[in-house]
Structures are given as C-alpha cells and as structure tokens.
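Moderator note: this is an archived Q&A kept for reference. The question asked for a predicted structure of one protein chain; the sequence and the answer are reproduced below.
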Amino acid sequence: MLQVHTCFRSETGGRSRNEDACGYWQSGPAACWVLSDGAGGHGSGDLAARLVVQTALQAFQEQPEASGPQALALLQQAQQAVRREKTSGATRDDMHATAALLLLDRERGQGVFAHVGDSRLYQFRQGRILRQTRDHSLVQQLVDAGYWDAAQIRSHPQRNLLTSAIGAADPLEISVSPQAFEVLAGDVFLLCSDGWCEWVNEAGMESTLACQPSRQPVGRDWLDAMAIRILQAASDRHDNYSALCVACSDDRTLLALQTD
C-alpha cells in the first residue's frame, strides 16, 4: 500500500488577511486533499474557502471513495454550501472560491483530481511534471484559442478573471480527471493557489524539487525553497500564497528511511 507524507504552507503575503484554506483526511486506503482560494467584495473570501474545504472533507469522510463521480460530487456539495451561505443573509458580498482536490486509493495506487478556477494541481514523477490542471480563466481560454502565449497567463492584467468559481451564480464548470490514473511510489503532488504559481513557474517547481535529498520524503523543505522564490520575486502587496504537498512512497522506502 502506498504511504503518503503531507505538508502545507499558507501565508498572508502582502494582504491584510489570508483567504486561502487547505486540509486533508485519510482513513484506511482512501485519502482526500483539498485547497481553496477565496475572494469576496467585503472580505468573506476566507469564509468561502473554509466552507469549500470543510464541506468536501466532511462529505468524503461519509463516503471515502477515490473516483471521478465522487470528486465531482464533493465540489458540487461545496458549491451548494457556499451558495446557501450567500443566500442566508449572513454576508452581503459576492464571496466565491477556487478549489483543487486530490483523491487517492492507496491500496490500488490510483488517483483522481478535480478543480475549479485557477487553483492548480500538479503531479510530478522522477522530478518532472507528469500532469497539471488547466485554469478556468479568460486568459487560459485565449491561450487555448491561440490568441496569447502561455507565458502570459502569469503576467496578463486580466489573469484573475475566472470563467468558473464556487459560489458564483453562473453554471459551475468542474474539471475532473477523465479516469483514475496510476500513482507510483516516488510520485509527488502539489496543490497550490494562484498566489503561489504566479511567482513559481513550472521550471522553478522542477528545479527546486531536484534539489531535495533523495533519501527522505519530499515535503516542507521543498515548499520552503519555493516560498523563498516567491518572496524574492513578488511585489510588496502580493496575494496570499498556499500549497499542499503530497509525497508518495511504499512500505519498503518508508522502512529504509526509518532504519538509516
């Protein structure tokens, strides 16, 4: 059975409050990780992000299953929770949130992901990006149509215009991996908010990952190395930045690490 090592880092950055949230739940072979980046006209983005994380994890606890339909259902339930809060009168702003979600079946060595908005999920194998999500944003649509270069996603002034967000009144677009994919010992997953991947590009993710010691699970040191890059490159008023790292190993690797 796959073993997983989880760590996270979530920082306020140059903002007055942190509107990112993340969490995970694991029991037996089934495990779930979720990261959310909230926004709102009068500061309720943190509430939206917390609702997304809490709702998804609670629903997964009730039905711990790593499948595409389950991943879709978890984010649909998060949408319902945020919409209920908005219509209850408890908040008057247009709070909404993005989300990235990972489900693993550790016994079968299979994974599923789902996401909404511009929070991202990456899977690394042997230090290289194997798969990543595509943003639900105006800039991503124009890049896909061939009007702009992919490098502009991080720098374009309209990069924060989303085409899908949890809590929005528009029909919700949720992207789910088309089928369960293989997860091997040594694979690493990164779930991050746009405030993180805005300042650390894919080459930077891979190069900092390559510098990590091979005889211990990837984790906090990798996140710290990327956070240094953010602080060196970002402006004084940069966004909250958050990331979840999930490093996979097998029982033999774990035993070797414990006895070295």
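Archived answer notes: Confidence is low (pLDDT under 50) at residues 254-260.
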